[in-house]
């Protein structure tokens, strides 16, 4: 049974300035996400925006707003590239379980993500 659906859009250009991007990464991204983004070379802004959109989509699906640290909504990737959600700390407590389906896409200056939360 579906518990919630969330979708979010994020401008990639918001993350293009390297110094600004680094501040955002340190503040809102878990260490695993930081490592993933830094490995992307020239694609860092795109990856950063996609992950940020995914975090927001997950929170929207939960229906709680931003009531936990964004670092607790961790967006990881399987070896083939498919993103998945790992909730930790307060985010995990708020969700109380369930499974997640997540999709991230990029087009032009936009990154979009959709998250589906099920029992």
How would you describe this protein?
The protein is of the alpha+beta class and about 120 residues long. It has a single domain (about 1-119), classed as Ribosomal Protein L22, Chain A (Alpha-Beta Complex). Helices cover about 40% and strands about 30% of the residues. The protein has helices at about 20-30, 30-40, 45-60, 90-95; strands at about 1-10, 75, 85, 100-105, 110-119. A hairpin with a 2-residue loop joins β4 and β5 (about 110-119). α2 (about 30-40) packs antiparallel against α3 (about 45-60). The longest helix has 19 residues, at about 45-60. It is globular and about 40 Å long. The N and C termini lie close together (about 5 Å).
């Amino acid at each position: 049974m579906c518990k919630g659906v969330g979708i979010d859009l994020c401008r990639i250009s918001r993350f293009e300035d390297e110094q600004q991007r680094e501040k955002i990464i340190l503040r809102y991204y878990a260490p695993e996400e930081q490592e993933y983004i830094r490995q992307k070379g020239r694609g860092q802004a795109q990856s950063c925006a996609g992950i940020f959109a995914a975090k927001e989509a997950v929170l929207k699906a939960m229906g709680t707003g931003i009531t936990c640290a964004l670092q607790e909504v961790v967006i990881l990737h399987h070896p083939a590239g498919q993103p998945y959600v790992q909730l930790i700390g307060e985010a995990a407590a708020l969700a109380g379980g369930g499974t997640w389906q997540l999709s991230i896409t990029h087009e032009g200056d936009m990154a979009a993500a959709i998250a589906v939360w099920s029992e």
